[in-house]
Amino acid sequence: MSEEIRNAPIVVPRSILTAILINGILGFAMLVALLFCLGDIESALTTPTGYPFIEIFQQAVQSTTGAALMTAIIIILAICATVGALASASRMLWSFARDRAIPGWFLFQKLDPRTLIPIPAIALTTIISCLLALINIGSSTAFNDIVSLSVVALFSSYLIATVLFLWRRCTGAIVLPTEVNATSLANTPGAQLVWGPWRIPGIWGIANNVFACAYLAVILFFCCWPATTPVTAATMNYSSLLLGAAVLLSVVYYAVWARKSYVGPVVEVEYR
């Protein structure tokens, strides 16, 4: 969604760091409040509602109405977060379609001529999300594996990007803007990689990337393990299997079809 923002190289990193700061402070405050009002842990874990936080609300306020109102606030926040996630996922799908990197790219790259919104991409993302939510009706194990897969896939994408970035940084493949021709394209396939306005220079940047790679490797390792023991078919974590299947399908699709149409990110140039 950075393409829809003016001065994205500065605005987007600043927004990300601001969001991390604000949500980190508020999340820590909420965690402290939750621990102080936790009450009977066993009752929360065995609550008939199936959601421990509802039981915690009930014990804290001693009122079903109050617990319902507090739960409604959580639901409203979840809906707002879902809208943002849907917008992000649909724009990501549209970006891959524009770059001809997914099956049916010619359909999902279309924009509404009046609003310039990728309606086909939004529709597909919404339909898939609704269908995945229905899995929980038949099997909570399968649904939990899908959720776990999304977490593992997200961190895997972070790790791949960070490792490649660290390699480019250590080999000196990224240069300062003053070292390239101002009229030539940069950061495109076959072109020179150039630093943006937002970066951590020198050894501190390398240390930051090394820490990020180590952190992500540890997180990925433990994300693929079952949550409880002894491990049964119902408690097994199949996210590593699903991730391997998704990677295999992607490799096969690229080898058979996508390599004929995908040549890298599309660069849109505006002439004035």
Characterize the structure shown:
By secondary structure, the protein is an all-alpha fold. The chain is 64% helix and 1% strand. The protein contains 9 helices and 2 strands; from the N terminus they run αααααααββαα. Strands 1-2 form a two-stranded parallel ribbon. Helix 7 (140-170) runs antiparallel to helix 8 (202-223). The model has no long low-confidence stretch (mean pLDDT 86).
Per the principal axes of the C-alpha atoms, what is the gross shape?
globular
Main sheet summary: 2 strands, parallel
State the secondary-structure class.
Answer: mainly alpha
Unreliable runs, pLDDT <50, ≥5 residues? none
Total strands: 2
The oligomeric state is single chain
- Work out the radius of gyration: 23 Å
What integer is the average pLDDT? 86
Helix-residue proportion: 55-70%
Question: Could you outline the blueprint of secondary structure elements for this entry?
Answer:
Elements: H1 8-36, H2 41-45, H3 52-61, H4 64-98, H5 105-108, H6 119-138, H7 140-170, E1 174-175, E2 193-194, H8 202-223, H9 239-256
Parallel strand pairs: 1-2
Helix pairs in contact: 3-4, 4-6, 6-7, 7-8, 7-9
Task: Write a compact overview of the structure shown.
The chain is an all-alpha fold and about 270 residues long. It contains 9 helices and 2 strands, in the order αααααααββαα. The mean pLDDT is about 85.
Note the main attributes of this structure.
2 strands, single chain, two-stranded parallel ribbon, 272 residues, mainly alpha
